[in-house]
Amino acid sequence: MPRGMLEVIATKQNFYRVANFPNVIGLIDGSHIPIAAPSLNEDIYVNRKNFHSLNIQAVCDANQIFLDFCN
């Protein structure tokens, strides 16, 4: 995430330039990323569509660069 007021202002300007979104400093989304079935606790990685995945949440900037993620 942007650090300091100058980075926040620059990030807001980038989002506005790219998508006409005012006052945005990051975009957040989540997705199921397919994985090979693990050998341990295989059942806890099966999602509602019945395939193995990790549920990942990510934040990116106006240049489509990942700033943060968690699973």
Automatic annotation (TrEMBL):
Location of the DDE Tnp4 domain: 28-68
Gene Ontology molecular-function annotations: metal ion binding
Top-rank taxon, per record: Eukaryota
InterPro entries: HARBI1_dom
Keyword entries, A-Z: Metal-binding
Cofactor(s) this protein requires: a divalent metal cation
Protein name according to UniProt: DDE Tnp4 domain-containing protein
Organism: Petrolisthes manimaculis
Upper classification of the organism: Eukaryota, Metazoa, Ecdysozoa, Arthropoda, Crustacea
